[in-house]
Specification:
By secondary structure, this protein is of the alpha+beta class. The protein is built from 16 helices and eleven strands. It has helices at about 50-55, 65-75, 100-110, 115-135, 150, 155-160, 165-170, 175-185, 200-215, 265-280, 285-290, 330-345, 350-370, 370-385, 390-400, 405-415; strands at about 5-10, 15-20, 25-35, 80-85, 90-95, 190-195, 235-245, 250-255, 300-305, 315-325, 420-425. Strands 1-2-6-3-5-4 form a six-stranded mixed beta sheet, with helices on both faces. It has a five-stranded mixed beta sheet with strand order 7-11-8-10-9. A hairpin with a 4-residue loop joins strand 4 and strand 5. The radius of gyration is 23 Å and the shape is globular.
């Protein structure tokens, strides 16, 4: 990411603000990151953080349902939101001239979303249909981000299904929604990021507009941020699940990774380890499992439960997933994975191997840097999670500085700890119960 000037302030109500100008782009992005994800939702209300994200699109104090959509699309912009382990984001990207419109829209729903019984019941049905589409009626649905955590973790925040259980979603009440909003959507628990073309406003004018639209949102107590820490598993844990839609068996292996807040370089070494293992035809597991031994039809590795790095606080998960023929014993696949990790733990990758994967990372980061939306969301998420938006701009250099010994140490760390093994077993049972957990 190119060098950016980051301007910070905190409003009187506690709302944190980042303004990051980029005169080279003709558009501007506005995002709101709220410090609540599915790890923070109350026990007995699985999926509530995601459900509430949906409710935030159902109208607000000054705008009826769908008016937010029309305002953004009418200006030629795009918008969306998403729920993660530790945060929920809302964002839009519009032509630079529409900056104040975007600030008004985001402030209005942060001030007072339209929480009604009709909206709640409607969005419960929408979320249930989303779960049917993406999990229950899809091959390998929820694999591995829903199915693996209960094997690796013990506590409710880390182990439960963040998409939600149908019965718990159906029992959600309007009081639950109001309490969730009052608790977690306090201004002091949120961060506004503005990035891109500030036009005639400049930084000072943009800060004044943010104060104008967000400054009168009443302050409320900011909830304490709990620690989700739990001990690392000391031995292998294994569980099998049936999948009526899967054409082939699959497996996922989960390990704990270093805390990026306190061990960022070690964490990034795990991210590069994932690339050495699975990115590209020359990667270790691709060569061994797919092309040489023919044990699997597909294999991938990822540093981060949700599929990407630096998207959560500690604890987070390193995953290896594979799909294999029915006549291949999963322990053969696991044995080959262990052998490849042991080789890396003993000698590390070659300089050429590491340079190839570092170059892939650099290309991916620069490609992401081409879009204002991704730059804005990366800056906001890293500021919220780790207190340093600058991490987003430092990533190419930090990745390039990782040595073969750093990757060797990451592989050794995986092999020295317990792990979770999830086995997906195909079944043609049409009577499998349609639940979300």
């Amino acid at each position: 990411m190119s060098e950016l000037q980051i301007h910070r302030t905190v409003l009187g109500n506690g709302l944190r603000v980042l303004v990051v100008p980029d005169p080279a782009t003709p558009v501007v992005g506005v995002s709101v990151h709220v410090d609540v994800g599915f790890r923070s939702e109350p026990e007995g209300r699985t999926g509530f953080a995601h459900l509430f994200e949906h409710l935030m699109f159902q109208g607000s104090e000054s705008l009826e349902k769908l008016a937010h959509f029309r305002q953004v699309q009418g200006a030629g912009g795009v918008f969306n939101g998403s729920t993660h382990q530790d945060y929920t984001d809302y964002f839009e990207v519009l032509p630079g001239a529409a900056l104040e419109r975007a600030l008004f829209l985001e402030a209005d729903r942060l001030r007072a979303p339209m929480l009604t019984e009709e909206n709640l019941r409607n969005q419960v049905d929408v979320v249930k249909e989303e779960i049917r589409l993406n999990v229950l009626n899809r091959p390998y649905g929820g694999f591995p981000w829903i199915l693996l955590p209960p094997v690796l973790y013990d506590t409710f925040p880390n182990a439960h299904n963040g998409y939600g259980d149908f019965s718990e979603l159906e029992q959600a009440t309007l009081d639950d929604a109001a309490s969730f909003f009052d608790t977690f959507y306090a201004p002091g628990n949120a961060l506004v990021t503005v990035h891109g073309d500030l036009g005639e406003h400049g930084v000072d004018g943009t800060l004044a507009l943010i104060e104008k639209h967000f400054g009168d949102i009443p302050a409320r107590p900011t909830p304490p941020r709990p620690s989700f820490a739990e001990p690392v598993a000391g031995a292998e844990r294994r569980q099998a699940v049936a999948d009526a839609h899967a054409p082939l068996p699959a497996l996922a292996v989960g390990y704990r990774v270093p805390d990026p807040t306190t061990e960022l370089d070690a964490y990034l070494a795990h991210a590069l380890l994932a690339s050495v293992l699975s990115d590209g035809e020359a990667a270790r597991l691709q060569r061994r499992l797919v092309h040489t031994d023919g044990l699997v039809t597909d294999v991938s590795a990822s540093n981060g439960l949700m599929g990407g790095p630096l998207d959560a606080r500690d604890p987070d998960t390193f995953t290896i997933t594979a799909v294999h023929p029915a006549d291949v014993d999963p322990d053969r696949v696991l044995g080959a994975v262990d052998e490849e990790l042991d080789k890396l733990a003993a000698a590390g990758p070659s300089a050429e191997e590491l340079a190839r994967q570092s170059a892939r990372w650099a290309a991916a980061l620069h490609h992401e840097d081409d879009r204002v939306m991704y730059r804005m969301l990366g800056l906001g998420a890293r500021e919220l999670l780790y207190g340093r938006a600058e991490i987003a701009t430092e990533l190419p250099a930090r990745i390039a500085a990782i040595t073969p010994d750093g990757v060797r140490a990451a592989a050794a760390a995986l092999r020295s700890q317990g792990r979770a093994v999830l086995l997906v077993e195909p079944t043609a049972d049409p009577t499998a119960e349609e639940t979300a957990e």
